[in-house]
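hey m, so remember when u said the tokens were messed up on ur end? i reran from scratch. heres the input so u can diff it against urs
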Amino acid sequence: MATLTMRIDPPMDAALASLAKATHRSKSDLAREMLRRQLASRSFQSLREKALPHAEAAGYLTDEDVFRDVS
């Protein structure tokens, strides 16, 4: 596993330490989860931006349009 070193300000460190204590997890474990979620969210947004023109051309303009065809 690779190592990442980063600087965070004292309030963020305190909030992370508090969350780690409350959830019985390490700060590193929480940071990994947060990074993983952010990377997944960005990947989703990128795919959505690429798919949106195709969806609109097919008449899918809202979430309801998608769910209408699924049921």
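this time it looks ok to me. The longest helix spans residues 27-57. if urs says something different then somethings off w ur setup not the seq
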